[in-house]
Amino acid sequence: MVPGITSIWHWLIVLAVILLIFGGGGKISKIMGDFGSGLKSFKKSVKDDEAEGTMPRKKLDEPEKEGAAKS
């Protein structure tokens, strides 16, 4: 007998996945659409901040200032 198949947690997870897939009624696509629009908005705001110069970018090959490195 395979352990885990008869576990109640196994069947609850299987039931939850089945309900999400078949009983979701478009909830998954709505959630993913909201996530995508939020990500697009975030990228746009970062690009706008960089264009305005309010968010300076630090180059990786720049050495840190000595005063900032010591605490």
Question: How would you describe this protein?
Answer:
The protein is mainly α. The protein has 3 helices and no strands.
The helix/strand class is mainly alpha
Q: N- to C-terminal separation?
A: 60 Å
Principal-axes geometry comes out as elongated
Major beta-sheet overview:
none
The overall average pLDDT, rounded, is 77
Question: What is the radius of gyration computed over CA atoms, rounded to a whole number of angstroms?
Answer: 24 Å
Please write the string of helix (H) and strand (E) elements.
HHH
Strand content: under 5%
Number of strands: 0
Helix count equals 3
Keywords:
mainly alpha; 71 residues
What is shown here, in short?
The protein is an all-alpha fold and 71 residues long. Helix content is 63%, strand content 0%.
What order do the helices and strands come in, and which of them pair?
Elements: H1 8-22, H2 27-52, H3 66-69
